[in-house]
Amino acid sequence: MASSAASSIAVERSADGRVTPHGGSLVDLMFKGSEQEKQAIVSACSTSIDMSDRNACDVEVLCVGGFSPLSGFMNEDEYTSVVENMHLKSGLLFGLPIVMDTSREDINVGDKVLLTYQGDNIAVMEVESKYVPDKAKEALNCYGTSSIEHPGVLMISTERGKYYMGGKVTGLALPKRVFPCATPAEVRATLPPNADVVAFQCRNPIHRAHYELFTRALDAENVKDECVCLVHPTCGPTQGDDIPGIVRYQTYEVLAKEVNNPKIRWAYLPYSMHMAGPREAIQHMIIRKNYGCSHFIIGRDMAGSKSSISGEDFYGAYDAQDLAKAKSGELGMDTVPSLNIVYTEEKGYVTADVAEKEGLDVMKLSGTKFRKMLRSGEDIPEWFAFKSVIQVLRDAA
Fold this sequence. Notes:
Sulfate adenylyltransferase, 7-stranded mixed β-sheet, 5-stranded parallel β-sheet, disordered N terminus, ATP-Sase_PUA-like_dom, sulfate adenylyltransferase
């Protein structure tokens, strides 16, 4: 079991008092010229690729600097370095490879490719390399297994094309989304300088236990009194049975209004989950550091997944916490272990160890039971979920 003791990591800050981005500066790949110059760039492209939802998320996060210090998709040597060593060639920590895939034979090194999404021109990629990746090694090293029972392995095996391509990316426009995704620069501008910013990552609606968890994180021993929490859910495609991004976004919006807590900030990330457990925890930390966060809440079995056949977990409950803590000094970003919060009849929400020590009556409601109650219209206990969130979920059913 992972230790809950707080660490203390030196967090480097820029001149404006905010956390220094990964690699030292925030990358901005968006084209700044005139419309005429932009059209000339588009006209110089020899072909185009209509991106998948996942590709479009990667391009957007690349262009706005969420993947700083990357300035494009990884060439083979960079890809291999991340797969084998979890580091860029420069020596910087990096969790997962960022690649553009294709099965097309007619795209060659030197080509300029227009990247489109849902009919819009999003970016131009200069193809510097095209290679056949070792997907088996990528799966084993990044996901801990080469079995297609894992959703991430299934994705790289069946969704991605035969080739990966690397090269510089120039952003033309951000994808049009039904929920707003503030850029790292925009989020940073809203954060108080010289304050600790604790990031909370999620991909599902927030219930009361989650709220208790991230608000209590602000009182952790290694978090300064002047602090805020950035709730930063991923709203890109995840697993097939997950709640759609637009519905999740609506639950967050109504909850932000309901709690009206000035210590809690809200923003949305157009990121496609890989369910890569420990490696993805590192990836999330790097992204949130680029968005201005100094601390990251590591949950139990974060970004974990189960076998589609046996139902067995691919990762240990504390694997992500252990790797994040081990790499936090190198990354220059502190971790806040996720507390095990339970609801008790006598004292409301307390930590599980307090409930056990004091012999309190713990109330439980399984996810399966919750979904059944949601579908049938039964009253859901207020200790479990916020009324505003329940209403959004029922309206979307």
